[in-house]
Every structure is written in structure tokens, then in C-alpha cells.
Amino acid sequence: MSKDSKVVPIKPLFSLQEVEEIKIRRVVVIEGAxxxxxxxxxxxxxxxxxxxxxxxxxxxxxxxxxxxxxxxGESAEFLxxxxxxxxxxxxxxxxxxxxxxxxxxxxxxxVDALLSQAGRLEGGFQKN
Length: 128
Hints:
Blueprint: E1 22-30, E2 33-41, H1 46-56, E3 57-60, E4 67-70, H2 72-83, E5 84-88, H3 98-101, H4 104-117
Helix pairs in contact: 1-2, 2-4
């Protein structure tokens, strides 16, 4: 083992307790102004993840015309809508439909980061 290798200790129990919230932060620069945007999510359930995957890869057509469609926008928006609790760094004062006003691109990067953190197990396994 090289001196750069880190030994990660094994924990005795894997927690199945719900994570209260997951905060995804990103600093964006728009027209020279810097904004820290925060999306606060609940942890996605196994059903949320299954529905996200179903929406991500859908088939269209019949027979030889059948093809798989990758729909990042719809799937990300579904998971974002299902799990979002609140946002920070956006001016939502007096805006009742703030969820509809968050740009789709923001929802996509937030969902990508959420999925990389939420309940992930090493080696491609996920909680059911």
C-alpha cells in the first residue's frame, strides 16, 4: 500500500434513517454578477428513482421504427419537483409559482448533484 493510499474505516451499521435534507450549492456568474444558488431537497425514495429512470429512457414507435429516447429534461424536472423543499439565492418574494420559474438548466444540474449524493452505495448498488 502506498503512503498516499487512505484506509477508510468500516462502520458497524449502514444507516437507514431518512436524511432530513440535502443541500446542493452552486455559484453561477450571470452578466458579471455572482450568485450562490442552493436547492434544498428531501432524499429521493426508491420509487422516485425508478420513476426518474423510467422517464429518462422511454421508447417511441412500433416494430422496426422503435427507438429509445433519452429525455434528460423531463426526468430531471420530475425528480426536482418530487423532492424539492425550497431554494435559496433566488428572489421568490411574492412569487407563488416559484417552482415553475426555476430554469430547467438549474433543475438539471441540481438533480445531477442530488443523485450523486443521495443514498448512493459504491459499486453501482442502490437502496430499494
